[in-house]
Amino acid sequence: MSIFGKIKDAIFGHKAQAQDIPNPQPTGNAYGDAPIVAPTAPAQTTVVNVENSLDSMPGADRLNWRTSIVDLMKLINVDSDYESRKALASEMGRTDYSGSAEDNIWLHQRVMQELANNGGQVPDSLR
To answer: Would you say residue 33 has pLDDT above 80?
Structure first.
């Protein structure tokens, strides 16, 4: 699993397990027409408030996760060492990550933007 995938799962919650819903079975009709398949319910979309989710995690009050990619990764129990951050930067499209303060600020903002792009409600102040 990608590092961003781990971050997303930690914040959004693990993907719901597939429910054991039998496949709809075609039913015939008295007129010999093509089988009719019962419609399925549309998937429900849930928006996750990223800020609230992170604030509610144990240790959030002791870490500066709002601006620090290292603290964000620590909060959600994802390895925050240089190699992990470099791999995450690569996933986010940056191949020249050096671990500088500027790189880490960019990485934090990029992760927040990707969380928003993937269905998270992220305040503009975190992007």
So the answer is: no
CB 80, CB 7: distance < 8 Å:
no
Task: In whole angstroms, give the CA distance from residue 15 to residue 109.
Answer: 24
Residue 38 has pLDDT above 70, yes or no: no
SS3 of 44, please? coil
pLDDT band at 61 (very low <50, low <70, confident <90, very high): very high
Give the C-alpha distances (Å, rounded to integers) separating 73 from 30, 38, 62, 85: 61, 45, 13, 9
Residues sharing a CB contact under 8 Å with residue 67, sequence separation 6 or more, in sequence order: 105, 108
Neighbours of 52 (CB within 10 A): 9
- How does the average pLDDT of the chain come out, rounded? 84
Residue linked to tokens 């781990």:
6
Residue pair 104/88 in contact (Cβ under 8 Å)? The answer is no
Tell whether pTM > 0.85: no
